[in-house]
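RECORD TYPE: inverse folding
INPUT: structure tokens
STRUCTURE:
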């Protein structure tokens, strides 16, 4: 593993702090990024035990985002039409935003975060509240194998990818496919979106790296879609190599070409990226220092914000509070920086002169919602792709 960026000591990104615990010292972990020159995989070097992150207090709910809900609905329609699956498994089904679109007899979910599994179960779906692994996959496929395994923004959270892909390979039916969706490394590097890295995101996959990994399991990508979620993701359609029901689409080579042209197979690309990140930190701090006497708040208390704010040493002296719509986060404090999170209210120009866009990946959804604030001269601060006021 070749190290290329040190993002400092970071708290657990989704461990929002209760008011009564504000005085307690938070556990922090080194966040260092590295590149594997053998398979070209980019990952964080110090991983945190999964039980510390994915437990009954997991705050993120997919159903609370319009963008995610729409994306899941459209994909569900496509899956039904194109693949006509009889049995589907979703790994990391969260609060059921995707599963919701299917007949409960045809789909089961896997969700180790018990608070989320409970919500999906209440909607009438079977959910295994466990981590996806070989043992669980055997239990699930006891009666029949799986036609579609879907996993969005989950597989990159799992440290032991050998077991994950091994279990997937064994679970697929003859025609079976895996649809894997995750932030694209190409977009992440191009956008200097270093905040895609935090304790939970062990990997940010490039197509190049994913292809190398899948190859070891006799799996291959047969189609790729570029989608807008999470700041630019790829949706990979993956099959067993001996599954000849699907041809390899041109999109695969196209994506590989784009990535090779940008240099995702070269260590030097990541060194350049690291330099841009260091510059981004300086520029963002400069902006915050320039407006120190103005009313500044944050919008979207994301896990990504945790990386940015802690890395750039921006805290509750720079940002008075964050607005967020997630019920679980409200009245808690962002990890590390201890900035209070308040229940979302439509922005008014009395509230703030400047709003830091924590959820930059929902920029258009947010700008659309806050038209009035913008029309009346309200400004946003973003660090993507470079720090600026908009
Ligand atoms: P997201 O960017 O999906 O996640 P991550 O934590 O993985 O970086 O999180 C979006 C957050 O932004 C979530 O806490 C909800 C919040 N949000 C709002 O408060 N208002 C909005 O209009 C939108 C779109 C999101």
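DESIGNED SEQUENCE:
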């Amino acid at each position: 593993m070749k190290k290329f960026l040190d993002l400092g000591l970071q708290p657990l990104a989704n461990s929002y702090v209760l008011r009564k615990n504000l005085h307690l010292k938070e556990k922090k972990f080194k966040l260092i990024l590295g590149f594997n020159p053998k398979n070209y995989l980019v990952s964080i070097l110090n991983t945190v035990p999964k039980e510390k992150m994915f437990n009954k207090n997991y705050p993120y709910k997919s159903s609370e985002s319009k963008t995610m809900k729409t994306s899941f609905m459209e994909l569900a329609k496509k899956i039904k039409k194109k693949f006509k699956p009889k049995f589907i498994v979703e790994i990391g089904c969260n609060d059921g935003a995707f599963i919701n679109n299917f007949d409960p007899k045809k789909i089961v979910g896997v969700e180790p975060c018990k608070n989320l599994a409970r919500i999906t179960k209440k909607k009438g779906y079977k959910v295994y509240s466990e981590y996806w692994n070989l043992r669980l996959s055997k239990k699930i496929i006891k009666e029949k194998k799986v036609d579609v395994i879907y996993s969005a923004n989950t597989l990159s959270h799992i440290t032991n990818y050998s077991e994950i892909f091994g279990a997937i390979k064994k679970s697929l039916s003859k025609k079976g496919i895996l649809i894997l969706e995750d932030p694209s490394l190409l977009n992440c590097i191009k956008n200097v979106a270093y905040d895609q890295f935090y304790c939970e995101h062990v990997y940010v996959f490039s197509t190049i790296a994913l292809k190398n990994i899948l190859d070891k399991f006799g799996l291959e990508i047969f189609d790729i879609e570029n989608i807008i979620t999470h700041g630019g993701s790829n949706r990979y359609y993956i099959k067993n190599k001996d599954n000849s029901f699907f041809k390899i689409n041109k999109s695969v080579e196209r994506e590989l070409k784009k990535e090779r042209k940008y240099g995702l197979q070269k260590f030097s690309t990541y060194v350049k990226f690291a330099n841009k990140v260091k510059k981004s930190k300086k520029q963002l701090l400069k902006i915050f220092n320039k407006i120190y006497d103005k009313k500044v708040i944050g919008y979207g208390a994301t896990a990504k914000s945790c990386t940015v704010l802690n890395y750039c040493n921006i805290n509750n002296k720079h940002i008075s509070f964050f607005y967020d719509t997630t019920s679980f986060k409200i009245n808690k404090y962002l990890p590390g920086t201890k900035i209070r999170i308040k229940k979302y209210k439509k922005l008014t120009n009395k509230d703030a002169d400047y709003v830091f866009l924590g959820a930059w990946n929902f920029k258009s959804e947010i700008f659309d919602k806050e038209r009035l604030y913008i029309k009346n001269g309200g400004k946003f601060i973003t660090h993507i792709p470079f720090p600026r006021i908009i």
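NOTES: The mean pLDDT is 95.
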